[in-house]
Amino acid sequence: MCSNGDTLTSWQTLATAKREAILGSIPEEWRLAKIPTVEEQRNVTGAYIRQFLSAKEVEITETDAMGIVEKTTSGAWRAVEVIQAFCHRASLSHQLVNCLHETFFDAALADAKELDAYFADHGEPKGPLHGLPVSLKDQFHIKGVETTMGYVGWIGTFQGQKGDSRSMTFESEMVRELRQLGAVLYCKTAVPHTLMCGETVNNIIEYTWNPHNRNLSCGGSSGGEGALIALGGSPGGFGTDIGGSIRIPAAFNGLFGLRPTSGRLPYGGVANSMDGQNSVLSVVGPLASSAGGVKLLTKSILSAEPWLHDPLVTEIPWRRDLEAQTKDLIASSQLSVGFLDHDGAVAPHPPVKRALGLLRDLIVQSGNKVFEWQPPPHLLQRVNELTYKTWLYDGGADVRKDFALSGEPWAVQILDIWQERPQADALSIAENNRALRQCRKEYLDYWNSTAASSGTAERHRPADVFVAPCAPFAAARPGRYDYIGYTSVVNGLDLPSVVVPITKVDRTDDVVDTSYQPVSELDKKIQSDYDPEIYDGAPVSLQIIGRRHQEEKLLAIAEWLEGELKKGSLAT
Amino acid sequence: MCSNGDTLTSWQTLATAKREAILGSIPEEWRLAKIPTVEEQRNVTGAYIRQFLSAKEVEITETDAMGIVEKTTSGAWRAVEVIQAFCHRASLSHQLVNCLHETFFDAALADAKELDAYFADHGEPKGPLHGLPVSLKDQFHIKGVETTMGYVGWIGTFQGQKGDSRSMTFESEMVRELRQLGAVLYCKTAVPHTLMCGETVNNIIEYTWNPHNRNLSCGGSSGGEGALIALGGSPGGFGTDIGGSIRIPAAFNGLFGLRPTSGRLPYGGVANSMDGQNSVLSVVGPLASSAGGVKLLTKSILSAEPWLHDPLVTEIPWRRDLEAQTKDLIASSQLSVGFLDHDGAVAPHPPVKRALGLLRDLIVQSGNKVFEWQPPPHLLQRVNELTYKTWLYDGGADVRKDFALSGEPWAVQILDIWQERPQADALSIAENNRALRQCRKEYLDYWNSTAASSGTAERHRPADVFVAPCAPFAAARPGRYDYIGYTSVVNGLDLPSVVVPITKVDRTDDVVDTSYQPVSELDKKIQSDYDPEIYDGAPVSLQIIGRRHQEEKLLAIAEWLEGELKKGSLAT
């Protein structure tokens, strides 16, 4: 065993080597001479990053996933030129905000060449994602590529196990499906160590910044995905979500993101924290620059019939009828949308409050229905308490084991949660499961009761969906993510939720609300974190939450809103 | 507090009073003067019980659920005459084999009158189950009716809680749905205390016998359901299954029974043992005298959209397309059926072996495909080991608490399982969950691999379903249910399974196989339990197991086989 001093040296050496290897994997010609300070360049998206790209590269990388597959499946664009453009832009993105854990551009190029050859031979695409670059959170296993999940102790291992034969050979179920569908994999994106964090920080890549506003976090735990897609380094990818880890980065980076119902998409063979805790399950889901991109990724994975290969996936294919019914509801002004403006625990900051108003106005102007979403008092807090208990069942043993592998220190954002505590026993786990089920039942009863207030013409039809903030803030300031209740409650209830970007923080519109009376010390603290100068330019997004398994309805609504928001130029 | 002596007196007094109250609830004119001994009358079904009924009562009670709703939804039969006939026959059944925990004939009659009035007023039925008597296992809560689940300590309480306001007022979710669909509830059926038993025995009704052969058990834990339906005292009802508790009584009593995938049918508000253990979930499902009856009950519950009211139910309505596709497969001789003749641990007795041969011949003769089902060695045993661990997570604390309420003794069948042991902790539960998921994955991989051997014309199509024994024996001899691996493995894998009755034990056809070499001491013990004289006349059934959520496929196959078996007079 190493002495403490040696251990420290060891983890630092390993982490530095890995960090340099990631940077080193970027071709020389794509290296940036200088990374601007935040004062010099707060927002590195759009015009800033575009300066390092050719016009063709800009065209390709600023086409959304739907647009790309239109070109690649028709032969208008070759898979090779598309992946090259994204490899370049992903390389720039990483240098600007530290969003990648792994690159494997050579393998990607080889795969793209095969796809082009396939198209040339067959005169048709390999699948619905033919030639589409797809980025993956660094929990997915890909042949020839390491998975560290942000742990220094996982470097050179398979999930911390040295000499495991699966190392560099095993592939996650969804990776197999993405290949079969014609997607091109080329990079894996940064996560916070433990995954249990709304920011992205670890001892390898250190801190991933929000590319729209580098004062702020890119969110977490799928933070690398969020930052990369926001910079145009990927048209879409997959993250995971047990407390908000898809929705938070989608929201903070101004993207669309879907947390599906558990069992809708395949988690099989994906590394995880506290794997085997099955009271509140982490789920896999897509993030993309457009609602259509999120839908394309979701539909395509379902078309691969993942239930035939992952025993936890439910046999529900993409339901066109539910999608069509939702469009009809919208067209006939019968969509009913509840609004949860404040969860009773922490108020949203002024920009988030403004976004709620913008979305409400948009829906009202369309002739569809809005009303106040008012589940029973304390039910949301109760769900969150029970949800957090599930994450602490093992008393932190699993993550402590992974930190101990290298002796690396914990990020301050993590440390607070994982104070050593005793494991839960079977009786207390069963009690928590019963209590959570009871809360879900009460929530369902509330949902059904909205038939009285939903404003739909057909009487007795409850709300279709409800809208809520993703977080109290547009994005978290580093080290200040003090409340995740707006996202985690959705995990506790196991409801699907789609994030829709609404607007951006405007220092002149979004002034501090000095009249607001905080409901608690926590609320007061979080309100005090809002500063229009610091926040200016950050994306502001909301989540739309549906009944279990109704992902089709959510995505139809997200596509509609995307179109309406573009028309109204609300999303600037 | 009572002294030990007082406690003993107390439980006996309570149990005797409850037992007498059940008998006492049967109208005088329906009492039997004498219950024959098993030597006098082994089989009390069919001709024996018919002697106590009018011709009209026989006609009604020997019509299956599909036939009954044809009559009641068209107005040919009144709900009142139907429920009266079943109340009579259920009363006779209970006296013959101890199959009831509760009767509420007056409430049933009042409900039936309301249904008749509804039909008279509206000229149409209330729902698809209009006027259909439905029996329920004594885990379901019904307004005005007690739920003891076989525990003396639950008498006069709500699930053991004295003074709970839900006592005699609360209704389970499925009960609400059954009423809404037009079903008439009239009795609750016997269970073994703890529910964790393949026989039905408790200190209230004592022992429930197999009505086809009163040397044998009716099975468990939905044993009262099985015995009652076999005697024609109910056309169909609902049980629950965590290790075989629907399939075992269906099999032992010569009935059809469905264990659905978890989350397909609503368990909400149903009493249970070890509630909150969520690694291997107990599921609700129907038993009936016909495959059509099982299908009717399943389809009808799904038509009530239980996912809107029970948060654990998956939104999958009855899929006519899957049912139709299955019929097409059968008609075009492309159905592929694996046969698991021996699970490697315990061999089936000669009658079960004969049933496997009969079913295989039938499928071959139809032109459809059969092949050997050979999952990886030891996988089945591994699944069972992991499944049994989930039942013991709490070290027996939950059931010990319920026994302690009254001080009643444990049935010998239960005692063996529930030796006091420590609770599992969160890490060992998570480990078990991961191991079980891995087994499910390996099983799925095996299933997919059968494309090579399934014999289907379209290459690469794996088996549709596989057939397996429900138990090594046609039915258990009292106190000798020493192996439940054939059913529990299906719970561990969370696959749907339908039981189909195939034949009956014939003392001349089903001789002891003296050449069989047991594979273990347990196998030897179980083989030695077979005695053609004792077993003669017992029903012999098999289960057909499908992929998750494919209940429609299973029921289409069960209906087809039912018709074929009738044609061939295999089911005598």
UniProtKB/TrEMBL annotation, chains A, B:
Key words, A-Z: Hydrolase
Residues annotated as domain Amidase: 81-555
Keyword Acetylation attributed: no
SUPFAM superfamilies from the UniProt entry: Amidase signature (AS) enzymes
Annotated catalytic residues: K137 (charge relay system), S221 (charge relay system), S245 (acyl-ester intermediate)
Catalysed reactions, as listed in the record: a monocarboxylic acid amide + H2O = a monocarboxylate + NH4(+)
Record-linked Gene3D superfamilies: Amidase signature (AS) domain
Binding-site positions, substrate: L195, S221, I242, G243, G244, S245
InterPro entries: Amidase_CS (IPR020556), Amidase_dom (IPR023631), AS_sf (IPR036928)
Broad enzyme group: hydrolase
Sample GO molecular function, one term: amidase activity
Known EC number: 3.5.1.4
Family membership: Belongs to the amidase family.
Protein name: amidase
Protein species of origin: Apiospora kogelbergensis
